[in-house]
Amino acid sequence: MKKKNDGVAAIVAKNIFTYFNAIFLGISILLIIAGSYRNLTFLPIVIANTLIGIYQQLKAKRILDKLSLISEAKYQVLRDGQKEEVLMDQLLRDDVIFLASGQQIPADAEVIEGKISVNEALLTGESDEIEKAHGSNLMSGSFVVAGACRARLTAVGADSYIAKLQAKAKEVKEKPSEMVGDINLIVKVAGIAIIPIGVILFFEGFFLKNQSFDHVIVSMVGALIGMIPEGLYLLVTVALALSAARLAKHQVLLHDMRSTETLARVDVLCVDKTGTITDNKMKVTEIFDPQNSTFDDVKRSKDLLASYVATSTDTNITAQALRQYYPDGKKFEHAKIIPFSSKTKYSEIKTVDAHYFLGAPEFVLGSKQNPEDSTQIEQRAAKGERVLVFARESASQIEPLLFISIANGIRANALETFRYFTEQEVQVKVISGDNPLTVSKIAKMVEIPNADQYVDASTLKTKEELRDAIEKYSVFGRVKPDQKREIIKSIKAGGQRVAMTGDGVNDILAMKEANCSIAIGSGSDAAKQSAQVVLLDSDFSHMKEIISEGRRDINNLTRSATLFLYKNIFSTLLALFSIIGMISYPLQPSQISLISMFNIGIPAFALAFEANNKKQHGRFLKVTLLRSLPAAITSFLAIACLVIFGMVFSIKSTDVSVASTFLLSMAGFMLLYEICKPLNNYRRLVFYGSILGLVLCAYFFHYLFAINSISYQCIMLAAVFAVAQESIMRNLTMFFSRFH
């Protein structure tokens, strides 16, 4: 079942009542008590961050809610003798509901008329199809594979089986994506570290060095503010929400915000032929006779096929194409219908005097297929057409009556889309239930690499054979539903990230197994409700936008997080240095706020929303750490040395504080320059605009940010360490680059 979006109150509460906002509130109270109002300059930034987060998430929520309403599954129910179409949360106990192939069962029910096959794999883990007839119980969360029925709802909402199952599973938290998990770790470590460091700094200054309360508070707050990654989590939340909103404008619905990141990192994309490479509509191109048939009444055989089509309850696109070709067939009387199954690859109808089959020739006729017929089938398969056989059982043998050739056109933008995947180093595997030669031919038309390497999955009898085939082939035909899941499992076992597209109920288990699942909008309700991403207009070319959005998020947030980590690591090192050296923290809160604004916050937000389509390699945390450490260590060494030399030469602490601000900002801009490379017009604007903003604020609001004139001696020391910073950072960058 898909997750609901947070409500307005939940979004507001999530942004206001945070751990770090509580820390900021406590710090603000301490500064007010100490009378250091100037050092409250961080408060407007904190408030602005919170308001921006609320506004952007509410804006995204409005767009996503509208899209969710359009895509939400609707069910037909019988109320007061009339059929009504209602949403799942409007279902009531004792409603009579109509269920058909492709639907997810929304509530516990009992069959009162008809017969269906259901798959309960999402509930039980077993993938077998279970037949349900009059009196059988249906469990919510399972889905209809074949057939149609009427059922009476016995338990809805919180009383249903799936709701109770979900309640039991609440203690098991969903694993966040790699990037979000790493950011959570950064925030968690910072959140744990600031309390003991703050307590030690206060205890050391107030009790051991007998400094005034006001002085100790300002010194402690300066250290803590630098350690808090106040905008990082907000930046991630807003970036992901805006990505979801942008994709919604392309008719792409995200059920899971993590999916864009997963798709951006995907190595293998598994697709079906229909709905991705080809249109989601089929057309009968030819009806032809079998060779050496004993059933020589051609008109009679076509009338029988028309009756079969009229009687069948199948609703898939093949059945729709046949109904379009034979719209006026006369139904068989007293017929027993066995719907199409992806396992058997055919459907059946039994009448009083005959038993008919319609499906894949290899499965209906088996080894008794006429060689001449096989040649005709292969000729059409080589043109990308799909061939079905209409047959009847005669004297314990299956006799072909007619062959039906069906085709569906290549999507207009399919070639461009699959070329894009090739350019982006994403391997494509086509997994289909159709004839492998047909699938291969169509895959060649859109230039899928190695499309001529195909295999008939029905010949792969063991898991070992299937694993070997995955290494060799790009096209799989005659794939059964359980094999789809095994293919996904094997690809993942090889250390690759895999995404899976699907449109039918038989794709769901494989989609659940994949790192990311994408449903086609014209597909079954069950597939759409189970998927992480839904292409509402069934346009597969939107996959380019999804991957681009994911890569934009990962690449830009990696750069932005590097800036935040720079400040956090530096502040932690300097705080530990202050504790060990029993000295006051050299930077004031207002000075840290100036750095946070122009070295970190503004450029981080500006860079977070730039288009960036490069595939990201390496773990998020490792990449950001290795990028931020050179600048953080350089700043720490320069400022630590400045503090020591300042004490040696008896330079005023206020002068050292201003010079430290200069050194910290200089290293920060050196890091920003590295992150912005290669410079384009937008990045130049961000880089030089940040420098100009800091200079102007330091000049016009020098009192507010504690930037005062300093002694000539301090200027000379700062100049020496500024020159040293460039060399130290360059060499540290070269050293850490070895570990990328």
TrEMBL record:
One of its GO terms (molecular function) is ATP binding. Its main location: membrane. It comes from the Bacteria. The keyword Endoplasmic reticulum does not apply. One of its GO terms (cellular component) is membrane. The chain crosses the membrane at residues 12-34, 185-203, 215-242, 564-585, 591-609, 629-650, 656-673, 685-704. Gene3D superfamilies: Calcium-transporting ATPase, cytoplasmic domain N, Calcium-transporting ATPase, cytoplasmic transduction domain A, Calcium-transporting ATPase, transmembrane domain, HAD superfamily/HAD-like. It is a multi-pass membrane protein. Residues 72-167 form the P-type ATPase A domain. SUPFAM superfamilies: Calcium ATPase, transduction domain A, Calcium ATPase, transmembrane domain M, HAD-like, Metal cation-transporting ATPase, ATP-binding domain N. Keywords: Membrane, Translocase, Transmembrane, Transmembrane helix. Pfam families: E1-E2_ATPase, Hydrolase. It is found in: Membrane. NCBIfam families: ATPase_P-type. This is ATPase P. It comes from Xylocopilactobacillus apicola.
